[in-house]
Amino acid sequence: MPNGRGPTPTKPSLSGQRVGGGGSWRPFAFLFGFFFPGRSYHGGAFGPATWPFRKDAVNAMDQSWDHPLDGLDDIPWADMRGPDDAAELVAALRFLAEEGGSDHRILGVLEDRDNDFRYATMAGRPEGLRPAAATVLRFLARIAAQPSGVGSSTAMEIIETILEAELDRPTMTDDELDAMVDGLRAELDAARPALAEAGRLDRHSLLPMPQLLESVDEGERLGGAYEPRWRGVARPLAGSLTGRLVVAGGMLITRESSGLVFRSLDDGTPVHEFGYPGPQEAWPFAGFHAGPGPRLSEAKLWAVPFADGEGPGVLTAEAGQRDARLWRRDGTGWQAIPLVRPGLRLRSAARRVDAIAAHGGTCLVGYGDNLLWSFDARSGTPTGDPIVLPREARHLAADHNRVTVVLQGRDDEPNVLRIDRSTGRPVKAPVGPAGTLPVQYQADDRRRLVFTSGTGAWRKLHRVDADSGAEIGEPLMVGDLNGFCVYQVGRRPCLAVGGLRQVHRFDAETGEPIGTPLFGHRRIVLDLVSAVVDGRPALYSADGATVRRWDAETGIPWPAPLPG
């Protein structure tokens, strides 16, 4: 989950313009040609035959690893980083090779502080690195392979960081960013002999070397640019500082830093905009994928968008406050309707809003005394009798017939409970344990639930039978899994999963991969949703800077033409 503090005091446009500052990158274009003569850096350096990575890379490095810094002084570091940083980088590499040391000194020079990386999600790592990091790879690989072993572990840690760091830089054009990514791939290919030697010596960081290179070759790591055949054709659907997507009422809803934007599913054009009420410091952070609701959320304001026959709506609640508010369109603006819980002389805890959800013309509000009340999504009036929720219920979702909650504090036991909305009774025994609210799909008239467990690089995606709770196949892992969604091609249920910067597709029942990973995101994919557009399933993915659209069946990125 992203770990920023939210937007800067300057209120950005709700339409999601890219922001950021910093110096020009253009000297790297010269350096790319300098280090890799004969390879164009404009519009894609390598052909489809070598995409995404050159497993049979030519040995472009000295086979002796006794002198890992040979050629260090021949690199025009000052052109890349300026005299002071260049001197510090060279000194830090020498110290690492000769004495060992930490990664902070080298990464301190390579970290990109001039661009907007607020939505990076990799805690404890630099949020983005400068192009010079690609050239550093060759020396780090040699240090990792040198016979003495001095500095090898630190070198491997920095290599992993370079391969996983955010690649987006708002000060660069798409062609320049593609060139930077291609340069990084070329350096990695050239470093393979040294990395293979480091692997033979069992030197690694979090991942063993063969596993790290395999994850690169299979597209789980690196990425960062569209395949060459799509460059100049595909582009983001929207420039949007969002890490949270919702599909409702035939619209794509993006949670921006200052409000919600209801967009066209076709081309991302904003249709409606909802600005968050109250002071800016209370607004929710745009990067959060999901949360437990107003009681446990770090944000002071919680907003749930939805749509029904009357158009778009938003349900909001403030942490520790007494009433939720329903917002509906009123001409050109939004009208606020307080959702007042029935009853007189209620204790303060009974008025505190703990969880909210909306579905099918109904708003649901969970209160501090564990009662869940329903309200009409048009008028805001209470409807029906309340449902008693378990005390530990925090996450809340609803469909036509059921309410689903995740029970807090049950990390090692089943904690997903589904409750019949008409009777208030559990439908089946709890399943899990789950770290997120499940999504569901149908397979052979059987209802399946999909949810994640674990954190960080060890997060897993589980598929279970909704009735029996039995696991469907082995859990799926794609590395730093964040967003996921279900979709259907014909009668085949499928899963789309965001892993690092790629979108992976799987058969929902067998767990087998579908096609190759989808490349294009320059940052970690934070959320995924699906919708049917013009009769075809489409995927939408967000990375905190852009929203991209893909044809779910073929993987072709928008707006590239589809076959036939």
Topology:
Layout: H1 27-35, H2 77-81, H3 83-99, H4 104-110, H5 132-145, H6 152-164, H7 174-190, H8 192-200, H9 209-217, E1 238-239, E2 245-248, E3 251-255, E4 259-264, E5 270-275, E6 301-308, E7 311-318, E8 324-330, E9 333-339, H10 348-351, E10 353-359, E11 362-367, E12 371-376, E13 382-388, E14 393-398, E15 402-407, E16 416-420, E17 439-443, E18 446-453, E19 460-465, E20 481-489, E21 492-499, E22 502-507, E23 527-533, E24 536-542, E25 546-551
Antiparallel strand pairs: 1-25, 2-3, 3-4, 4-5, 6-7, 7-8, 8-9, 10-11, 11-12, 12-13, 14-15, 15-16, 17-18, 18-19, 20-21, 21-22, 23-24, 24-25
Explain this structure to me?
By secondary structure, this protein is an alpha+beta fold. The chain has ten helices and 25 strands. The strands form seven sheets. Strands 1-25-24-23 form a four-stranded antiparallel beta sheet, with no helix packed on it. The chain has a four-stranded antiparallel beta sheet with strand order 2-3-4-5, with no helix packed on it. Strand 20 (481-489) and strand 21 (492-499) form a beta hairpin. Helix 5 (132-145) packs antiparallel against helix 6 and helix 5 packs parallel to helix 7 (174-190). The protein is elongated and about 80 Å long. It starts with 26 loop residues before the first helix and ends in a 13-residue tail after the last strand.
Percent strand: 25-35%
Helix content: 10-25%
For the biggest sheet, the summary is: 4 strands, antiparallel
Question: Major sheet: order of its strands?
Answer: 1-25-24-23
Helix run count:
10
| Coarse structural class | alpha+beta
Number of DSSP-assigned strands:
25
Q: Which quaternary structure do these chains form?
A: single chain
Q: Round the Cα radius of gyration to an integer and report it.
A: 25 Å
Low-confidence stretches: 1-62, 119-126, 289-296
